[in-house]
Amino acid sequence: MEQDGSRLRAMVVLTCLNAASGARELKVRSKAHKAVYNHTLATILVEYASTISVYMSDLTDLFSWTLPRFDGKTKGFEVIKLIVDLQHCLQAYIGVAKDLNAMVIAFRGSQEHSIQNWVEDLYWKQLDINYPGMPGAMVHHGFYFAHHNTTIRPGILDAVTRAKDLYGDINIMVTGHSMGGAMASFCGLDLVVNHEARNVQVLTFGQPRIGNAVFASCHSDRVPNTIRITNGHDIVPHLPPYYSRFPQKTYHHFPREVWLYNIGFGSLVYQVEKVCDSSGEDPSCSRSVTGNSIADHLVYYGVGLMAETWGSCKIVMDARLKEYGGEDVKGNLMLSRNPSASTLRLPSDSDAKSNFS
After folding, report:
1. 104-133: per-residue pLDDT in tens?
2. Between β-strands 129-130 and 102-108, what pairing exists: parallel, antiparallel or unpaired?
3. How far is CA 132 from CA 139, 190, 212, 225, in A?
4. Domains of the chain by range and CATH?
5. What is the pTM of this model?
6. How many CB atoms lie within 10 A of CB 187?
7. Pairing between strand 78-85 and 90-97?
8. pLDDT in tens, 341-357
9. How would you classify the pairing of strands 78-85 and 333-336?
10. What 3-state DSSP class applies to 272?
């Protein structure tokens, strides 16, 4: 544990030295950036991001949407599809929030064995794959693979098509926390570029950098209604590192960032919500502080975003849910339902015994 702490401190020192360098920085060029920060919407979507993080192991609670906590800001949400890629410990759900008049897509991404190990691995990630159809745009293959090359993507596209058939061309809101935020960003871009979706909005929490400045510009142009929420000294938005001395080769955030930070002293502390510039790397926002806090990564707007056990992909599911889907040949799970149904109908125990014994 002491060795792990030393490693983390060394990474923080390197990040500070990089932030202090005076090289000329690239600016994200966006012709259409129009994201407007809405506090109320952010506090609603963080609940959706939290739900998939906290309840990722209990598919029954998540798929049925019946727990007491769902009677708050997410009340009335109708799940259309729940996808679990057990091979890569990834998960997403898609449904319709009628109060938002929107489809919501929420991602939970794997943090491997523990969040500290995941953070250490993230620190050394390199740009190593060209994004298709965007000359000069580079991303890390791990983030790209998580969205494009797993069971998650085809499941999402199927659910989006079904929701549009039922509800028309409603808004699509994509969200996620941490690596789930990275997947949400790729998903929003994919829906716009490859599937001609309109009215796509992306809002993420504690998202890492996922590509270079060219990619950031392309993402901003194609998905202009995108906001990244960062919190205090959250370490993950500082990773993979931004090296201002190598602007063409380094990772670069896309806009727009909204930085949450506290001011005051003692009992007179309140949270500021700063809307940052359109560069993606506003030096007066989260880059103005050291990214050294895991605690700040796990709570946004007072909502906890930590699963009960990090790195656990153990799934619990009522056998009666098998009526709504099942496993593929690789053991991945996909559950689907008709969103026009007002409540989820579970077969009786006797039905379950006869069908699945």
Report:
1. 999 987 665 677 778 888 888 889 999 999
2. unpaired
3. 10, 11, 14, 21
4. 2-356 (3.40.50.1820)
5. 0.86
6. 27
7. antiparallel
8. 544 444 444 443 323 22
9. antiparallel
10. strand
